[in-house]
Sequence to fold (683 residues):
Amino acid sequence: MKKEKKMKLSIPEQELMNSGHLACQGCGATLAMRYALKALGQKTALCIPACCWSVIDGPFPYSSLEVPIFHCAFETAASSASGLKAGLEMVGDTETTVVAWAGDGGTFDIGIQALSGAAERNDDIIYICYDNEAYMNTGIQRSSATPYGAWTTTTPVKHFKDRPKKDIVGIMAAHSIPYIATASIGYPEDLVKKIKKAKEINGTRFIHIYAPCPTGWKARPEDTIRLSRMVVQNTVFPLYEVEDGIKYILNIKPREKKPIDDYLRIQGRFRHLTEKELNYMQQEVDKRWEKLLSHVENN
Amino acid sequence: MRKVIMGNHALSYGAMLSRAQVIAAYPITPQTQVVELLSEMCADKTLDAKFIKVESEHSAMAACIGASLAGARTFTATSSQGLTLMHELLHWASGGRLPVVMGNINRAMAPGWSIWSDQNDSLSQRDTGWMQYYCSSNQEVIDTVIQAFKVSEMLLIPSIVVLDAFTLSHTYEVVNIPDQEKVDEYLPSFKPRIKLTPEEPHAFGGLTSPEHYFELRYKLQIDMEKAPRLIEETGKEYEKLFGRNLGLAETHRCEDADLIFITSGTMGSTAKVGVDELREEGIKAGNLRIRVFRPFPFNKVRELVKNAKKIAVVDRNISYGHHGVFYQEVKSALYTQSNGLPLFGFITGLGGRDITPSTFKEIAQYSLKKEKPDEEIVWIGVNR
Fold:
C-alpha cells in the first residue's frame, strides 16, 4: 500500500480565533492574534487593555476567541497580567500562559510604567505589543510609537510627527528580561516560532509585533502583507531577538537592503513628505540598522 | 492569643488569618508597617501567599483585580494619595464584582503634604461601589478584615477597611488574635462560581452596550442593599465564635440621650469620653459611631436617633462647596422621617489636628445653645 505523505505544517493548524470578529479590512492586529494563539495554544489567558483588540474581540456577551480574556484598564496590561498569573498559581493552575496583549499606546505610552514594573520584577508573563503606530481605536492619534514624518489626526500635515519612534526594545532590553523578540505578521513562521520559544521561557518575555493598520495609515487593505514584508527588507522594522537584555540575534538580514521610498509611497500618512525629510528618514533608518548590527556583532 | 500590636499590624494579622492568597501593595506613609509585616509573613511562609511588590498603587489594585478574577483571595493596603491613584481601578474591582479587601489609612490629601489623619481620601471614593468600614480600635481592625472578606465574597463586592493615620495606625493596643481554626470555620476559602480559566473561556469586562450595562449596575446596587443585613448577621456569627459583635454602628449611652453625636473612626472612641464627661455635668449626651459607611445604614441610624432631641454630626472631612460628608449622609437618611429634628454639622480635625474630649464639649455647648443650626457648617478649632 502506498504510504500517505503528510504535509508538515510550519504553523499549527489549530484555530483559536473565530470569524465574526470586528476588525477592519486588512487589519494586521487580527492576523497577529491569530498566529499568536496558534503558537500559544488553548491554555492561555489574555489581558487586553483599551486598544483595537478590545473592540475586535466583539461586544459583551460575545467573544471571537477560544481563550479567556480579561478586558483590563488601559494602563494595566502588565500589572493585571502579573496579578492574574499569581492568582492562577494560587488556585492551583500553574500551566496557563498569561499574556498581556496591548497596542502601542497601551505599551509605549500609558502602560509603560506597569510594564517596566513587571519586567523589573521578572513576573512570569508574556507581554505582546501589536504595534500599529498610533491610537487607532480612538481614530488615529499619534502615540510615541508613531514614526517620524507620519500624519495622524493630532499630527496634521502642517505639523507632522517630528520625533522618532520610541525604542521600546531598547527600553525592555535595559530591564535584563530573559527574552525579547520583534516579529512581523508578514513573516508568520518567524512570529510563531518566537512566541513558541517565549512560551517555554520563565519570567517576563516581550514580543513586539509590527501590525499595519490600513485605515490609519491610509494604505490599501491588500497591501498589509506587502508592507509587513517591506518593513523588514528595508530594515525599518528588523526581525531580531534579545536574550537576557544582552545577547542580540538577528533573524533576517536582507540580502539587499531596500530603500524606504517604496514603503512610504504606498502609505498615505507619509504622502506630504518632501525629498529632504525622506532623506533624513533614510539616514535615521540606516543609523539604527548599523546600531543593531553592532549589537549583534558585539555579542 | 493576646498581643500588643499597632493598628497597621492588626491589618496584616487580619489578612494573614483570612489566608489572603495574593497581596499586591506599594508603600506609603503611614501604611508601611502593614506591608512590611505581610512581606515577612510571606517570606517565612507564615502566610502562603504571593506578594507582588508593584511599582505603584495603581498597579497594586490592577494586580489584585487580576488575581481576584482568577479566584484568589486578594488583599492590599494603602493611604491617601495611593488610594486616590487607585480610583479608576476601584470602579473596575466593584464593576467586575471582585471581592478584593483593602486596608486604607486615613491620611489628608496634599497639597501641602500631610501625613496626618482626615477622611477625605476614603470618602472621595464613596461612589466607587466599595463597602467601607471605619474602625476605632486595633481589635476592630483585625476583626473587620476577617468579616470584610466574608461579606465581600458573599456579595462579590470589594471592601475598604479604614483606620485613622497615627491615632490608630501607629497606636499599640492589646488585641485578641483570633484562633486560625476558628477563623477558617468562619471564613471558608473563596470559591467563586465564575472565574477566569482556560477550562471555561469567558471574556470579562468587554464592550457593553446600553442594552446590558444598566442592568449590571442595577444588580450591583441590589447586592449592595443586601449588605446591611448581611453585616449584622455575620457580625452576630462572629460574636458567637469570638465574643465580639460587629454591627453597622456602635452606640454609647444613646438610649436616653437628648444630644447624640454621630461620629466615625477613632474620634468615635474620643466621643465616648466626651459623653461621659458631659454626663457628669448633667448633660444627657450619647454617641453613635457609624462603623459601616457604605452601604449607608439608613435604617440603623434612623432607629438609633429616634428619641434624641438634637443631633450633632462630626466630620473629619469636607465636601468643598457642600458640607461634611457624614452630615450629608445623615441628613439624607433622616430627611423623610426626622420630624424636624435639629441636625448640626461640625467639621473639625482636618489634616490631623487633634480631636479631644473637649472638642465634643465645645460641640455640645454649641448644639445646646442654639435651637437649630444657623450655619451650614460649624467649624471647630479652626483659626479664621
Strands of chain A lie at 44-48, 69-71, 97-102, 126-131, 179-184, 205-210, 240-243, 247-250. Chain A touches chain B through 48 residues (CB under 8 Å).
